[in-house]
Amino acid sequence: MHESVKQAPKQTNQVSSHDADVALWLPDFCTMAGRKADNQDSLLITTCLPYGFPSLSSSAFHGAYPSFTAPLLVLMADGVSACQFPKQASQSVINTVTHHITSKLAEMVQTDRVQANEISNESQEQSPNPLHRFDDDQVAIVIKEAVHQANDALYFPQAYERLPALLSTLSGLLCIGDRIHLFHTGDSRIYRIGIDSMVLLTKDHHIHHGRDKGALSAAIGADTRVELQQSVFTLHQNECLALMTDGVYESITPAELQFELCAAVQAMHQSVACPNQIIDHLQMSQRLCEHAFSEGSHDNLSVIMLGMNDEIIKSKTHRETDNGIALDQGVDSDSSHAQDINHYRLPTGLAVGAQIDNFVVKKIIARTARSEVYLVEDNDQHAFVLKSPSLNVIADGHYLREFLKERKIGLSLSKHKRIGEPAYNQVNPNSVSSHDPLLTSDVSKKLNATFNASNASGLLRYYPVPASSTYLYHLTEYIEGESLRVFMDRQAPCDIWQTYDLLTKIGMAVRVMHRNYLLHQDIKPENILLTQSGAVKLIDFGSASSSILKDSTRPPNGDLHYAAPEYYTDAPKGVHSDLFSIAVIGYELLTGELPFSSQELMNPSASLIVPAERLRQNRVPATSQQALMRALHSSTQARYQAIGEFLQDFNPDNSNNTRDPEPLIIRHPLLVWHSICFIQFVIIISLLIYFS
C-alpha cells in the first residue's frame, strides 16, 4: 500500500514551457487513482494558444506583440462512479470545453487583429496587443457556451440513443492576462489561498441527507441545462489557487488543509525568489494527495495549484500607478476599460453649426448635469444623435468608463458595418420563433404579426465613432417620436389591449439583450422611445451588465421606483429582475400610478403587496391581474423566469377562455355587502314582527 503512494502520479497533461520572461503563472499538479482500480479524474493545464496564432517563440510574434502572454486554461473533471464509463465522461468534457474555448479565442483574436490593422493603417501606429481586447463578458459567454456543448455531448446520446449514462463534474479556470475566469459545477472545489487565509470560491452542488455525504445535485450530462457557477477576479500578491476533487478535501480536516495550503503558498512564492528551490515546490500537490491517501480516502485524488509570478504583479501594479486613472473597486474592470480616459476630449458646449469629426450640429436636443445630446448630420446628410458626457463628470472616472462600456454594448448589439446597411437588431430580431416552447402557437403568430408590421422595433442602433477621433461620445440613430413617459403623461391610464401591445414590444426588445447574456437593469419609461410608426426602441445601456457574471450586477443609478427589490439584497439577479421593471410599467400604464414606493422596494424585509383595487376599478381581466401580481412578487423564485411566459399569461384573450371566473365578492364587493346587509335587515324586521 505504501508503494502505491510512492508511484509517480498519472499526469494527464504537461504545461508547455516557453520563455521565462513571459512565465506569468506557476502551475503544480498531481493526480492518482488512490485505492480505486482506475483513475476517473481528468486534468488539463495548457497554454490555450488560439489555433493559427503565431508561435510564442516566433521573433515576428514578439516584434508585433512584445507583452503577449498566452491564455492559460486549467480544467479538472471528475467522472461520476455511478455511471458506466466515468473516465470517458471526464475526458469528453475536457476535450469539448478545450476545443470550443480555443476556437472562440482564435475567432476573437482574428477579429481584433483585423480591426487593429485597420486602425494602424489609418493612424500609422503599431497595432495594440490583441489579447488585451478580451473583456470579461465576452469570455464568460464563451465559457458558458463551451460548458453547454460539453453537456449536450454527454446528455443527448443517453437520452435519445439509449446509450449508457455519462456524468462528470467540472471545475476550471481561464486566465487571460491577470484576469481569472472561474467556472464550476459539481463537487470538486476551488480555494483561494493566502499566506494565512483560505477562502472557498465554489459551491458544492450536493443534496444532503442527514449526516451522509448525499448526492450530486448538478453535473455535466445530468440534465438539459447545467447549473454553472461563474465569476471573474484578480489575484493579489502572495496568493494562489487550489483545485481539488472530493477525494482530497473530504479526507483532510479543514484546519489541516488550511495549514498545508498556506504553507504551500509560502513555499511557492519563496521558490520564485530562490530559483534553485523550484524543484521542491513542485511536490506540494503530490504531498496533499498522499496526505489524503494516508487519512483513508477511498476515492481518486487530484490537486492543481496555480500561483502568479510576483514580479509580474509588481510590474502591473507599477504600471497602474503610473497610469493617469485607476479603476474603482467593484467596477467591472474588463480590458476595454484599461485604456487611458485622459487622452479623450469632451465635445461639450457645442452650438448649432459647429463641426466635430465631419459631423455638423443641427440641433441641441438636451443638456443635463451628466450628458449633452445633439442632433448631427454627416457629409451625406444622414442624421445621427451624438451624446457626450458633460464637463461636470470629467473627474468621475467611474462614469466615464461606464460611458465607454455603454458604447461597447450598443455596438455589439447592433452588429452592422456602415450607414444604410441593416443592423442586427433591425432585422426583426424580436419576432417570436414558432419553436419557442414558452409561447403557444396562437400567441406566437400574433407576436410575429405585430413585429412584421415594423422592422424598426427593437434596440437603439449604435454606430462606430471614427477611429481617428480624439473625442469621447456615442453615435446612435435618430428616432422621431416620443418617450414612453411623455406618452403615459398624456394617455394613462390605458386600456388592457393597448397596454398588452406596448408590453409585448418592450418585452421582445429586452429579450434581445437577454439572448446576448445581458441584463438592461434600468428599464423605465424614460428609456423607452415610441416611434411615429408605433414601434418601440429601448435605449440607454449604461447600466447593462452580464447575466452570467452575477457578481457584476449592482443597484441601478436611475429611478428607483422601477428597480427590482433584489438589487438591495443578496437575492439572485436575472431575467426576472428586468421583468419586474416591465411589470411596474404595465401597472403604471393600466392605472396611472406606481405600485410601490422606492422605500418599499429598498426595504429588504418588506413583503410587497400589489394594490389590486386600482386594477379592478379599471376592469383589468383577472388573468392579466394575476400575471402582473406574479411578475411583481417580492420573491425571485415566485416570479416568472421568462418574458414569453409572462406575456402569454398577461394576454387579455385568456380571460375569455377562463373556466373559473373571479368570485362575485372580488368583482363587485359593494354589491355583495349591500345584498348581505339587505338580507339581514329583512330577517331582523321579520323577527320583530313575528315576536311583537
UniProtKB/TrEMBL annotation:
CDD domains: STKc_PknB_like
Superkingdom of source: Bacteria
Domain Protein kinase: 359-671
Keyword Kinase part of the UniProt annotation: yes
Annotated ranges, domain PPM-type phosphatase: 26-308
Assigned keywords, A-Z: ATP-binding, Kinase, Membrane, Nucleotide-binding, Serine/threonine-protein kinase, Transferase, Transmembrane, Transmembrane helix
Residue ranges crossing the lipid bilayer per the database entry: 671-691
InterPro entries: Kinase-like_dom_sf, PPM-type-like_dom_sf, PPM-type_phosphatase-like_dom, Prot_kinase_dom, Ser/Thr_kinase_AS, Ser_Thr_kinase_AGC
Catalytic class of the enzyme: transferase
SUPFAM superfamilies: PP2C-like, Protein kinase-like (PK-like)
Recorded catalytic activity of this chain's protein: L-threonyl-[protein] + ATP = O-phospho-L-threonyl-[protein] + ADP + H(+); L-seryl-[protein] + ATP = O-phospho-L-seryl-[protein] + ADP + H(+)
E.C. code: 2.7.11.1
Molecular function terms from GO: ATP binding; protein serine/threonine kinase activity
Protein name, UniProt field: non-specific serine/threonine protein kinase
Organism field: Psychrobacter piscatorii
